[in-house]
C-alpha cells in the first residue's frame, strides 16, 4: 500500500535527485534576468479535464529550494479538474519559482495523468465485483509516486516491490521445476502470514495451482472463456486475478469472467500526462 506518509518518507531524496538533474550548477537563464531576490507569484492552471494528484509533491519542490515559498491550493488530490481551472498560487522568490517550475510540473503532470487514466479504467469496471490493480511496471525511482497516483484515481495497489509479497511467475515456476514444486518451496520459505500467488497460463495450470494450495491465482493472457472456466474450477478456493495486456480499451472484456482482480501495467507505463502549466508570473509588493 502506498499512502501519503509512506510517500513523504521517500519524497525528499527523490525530489532532490530530480532537482539536481535539472540544475547541475546553476539556472543560467534565471540568473541572467534576475540577479537578486524579488518576490513574485504565479498561477497553476489546468489545461485539460482530469484527476489531480501530487499536489504536496509539487509544493515540496519549491519548499526544498526555499522554505519560505507559499503555496495556496484550491483543490485536493483526487479531485476532478477542468480545462482553464485555476488550481493553485505559488508565491515566493521569483528565482525559486523559475528554477522549480519544470521539476514541480513534471511530478504533478505525471501523477495526475496516472490518476486520470486509472479513474477512467475504474469507471469501466463500475457495477462489477472486479477491482483494478497496478503492477511493478513503473518508472524507475518513481514507483512510490506512481502507485500513490493509482490510488488517487480509485485503483488499488498490487505488491510494492519484490520484498512485499510472493508472486511465482513463469520463470520462478521453471526454476523450481513446476507449479506444485514452486508453491511447496514458497510455503516452506515464507512466513505463514504471507499469501502465495502463482501465475498460470492454462486450465491445467489452474487445476494444479488449486490442488497445491495457492492463495491467489493469476490468469495470465487467457481468453475470456477460459477465464470463466478457471473461475468456476477454482470455486472460491483462491482469489483470482486477470493479467496480460489489459488497457482502457480492453478492460470491459474481462468483467464477464468474474475475476476478483484485474491488474494493468498500462496504468503506469502508458498513461499520458495531464497538461498543467504555471502561468502569469509577476512581481508582487512585500
Q: Can you characterise this structure?
A:
The two termini are 43 Å apart. The protein has helices at residues 4-22, 28-33, 55-65, 94-124, 143-152, 170-176, 179-189, 203-212, 224-234, 266-269, and strands at residues 39-46, 50-51, 70-73, 80-81, 86-93, 131-133, 166-168, 196-200, 216-220, 239-243, 261-263, 276-283. It is built from ten helices and twelve strands. Helices cover 42% and strands 20% of the residues. The chain is of the alpha/beta class and 286 residues long.
Radius of gyration: 23 Å
The overall pLDDT, averaged over residues, is 95
Structural class: alpha/beta
End-to-end distance: 43 Å
Secondary-structure element order, N to C:
HHEEHEEEHEHEHHEHEHEEHE
**What's the assembly state of these chains?**
single chain
Broad shape: elongated
* Sheet of most strands: 6 strands, parallel
Overall helicity? 40-55%
The number of helical elements comes to 10
Note the main attributes of this structure:
four-stranded antiparallel β-sheet; 10 helices; alpha/beta; 286 residues; 12 strands; six-stranded parallel β-sheet
Short description:
With 286 residues, the chain is an alpha/beta fold.
Secondary structure elements and their pairing?
Elements (H helix, E strand, L loop, with lengths): L3 H19 L5 H6 L5 E8 L3 E2 L3 H11 L4 E4 L6 E2 L4 E8 H31 L6 E3 L9 H10 L13 E3 L1 H7 L2 H11 L6 E5 L2 H10 L3 E5 L3 H11 L4 E5 L17 E3 L2 H4 L6 E8 L3
Parallel strand pairs: 6-11, 7-8, 8-9, 9-10, 10-11
Antiparallel strand pairs: 1-5, 1-12, 2-4, 3-5
Helix pairs in contact: 1-3, 3-4, 4-5, 6-7, 7-8, 8-9
Amino acid at each position: 500500500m502506498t499512502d501519503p506518509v509512506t510517500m513523504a518518507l521517500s519524497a525528499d531524496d527523490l525530489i532532490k535527485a530530480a532537482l539536481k538533474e535539472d540544475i547541475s550548477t546553476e539556472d543560467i537563464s534565471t540568473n541572467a534576468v534576475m540577479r537578486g531576490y524579488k518576490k513574485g507569484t504565479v498561477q497553476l492552471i489546468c489545461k485539460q479535464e482530469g484527476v489531480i494528484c501530487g499536489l504536496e509533491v509539487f509544493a515540496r519542490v519549491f519548499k526544498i529550494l526555499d522554505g519560505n515559498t507559499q503555496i495556496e491550493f484550491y483543490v485536493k488530490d483526487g479531485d476532478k479538474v477542468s480545462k482553464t481551472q485555476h488550481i493553485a498560487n505559488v508565491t515566493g522568490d521569483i528565482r525559486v519559482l523559475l528554477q522549480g517550475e519544470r521539476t514541480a510540473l513534471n511530478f504533478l503532470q505525471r501523477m495526475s495523468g496516472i490518476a486520470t487514466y486509472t479513474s477512467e479504467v475504474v469507471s469501466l469496471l463500475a457495477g462489477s465485483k472486479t477491482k483494478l490493480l497496478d503492477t511493478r511496471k513503473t518508472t524507475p525511482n518513481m514507483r512510490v509516486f506512481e502507485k500513490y497516483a493509482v490510488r488517487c484515481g480509485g485503483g488499488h495497489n498490487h505488491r510494492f516491490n519484490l520484498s512485499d509479497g510472493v508472486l511465482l511467475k513463469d520463470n520462478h515456476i521453471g526454476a523450481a521445476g513446476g507449479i506444485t514444486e514452486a508453491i511447496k518451496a514458497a510455503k516452506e520459505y515464507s512466513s505463514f502470514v504471507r499469501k502465495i500467488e502463482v501465475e498460470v497460463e492454462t486450465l491445467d495450470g489452474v487445476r494444479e495451482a488449486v490442488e497445491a494450495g495457492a492463495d491467489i491465482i493469476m490468469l495470465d493472457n487467457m481468453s475470456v472463456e477460459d477465464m470463466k472456466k478457471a473461475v468456476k474450477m477454482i470455486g472460491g478456493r483462491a482469489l483470482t486475478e486477470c493479467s496480460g495486456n489489459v488497457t482502457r480499451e480492453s478492460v470491459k472484456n474481462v468483467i464477464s469472467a468474474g475475476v476478483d482482480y484485474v491488474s494493468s501495467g498500462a496504468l503506469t507505463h502508458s498513461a499520458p500526462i495531464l497538461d498543467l502549466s504555471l502561468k502569469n508570473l509577476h512581481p508582487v509588493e512585500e
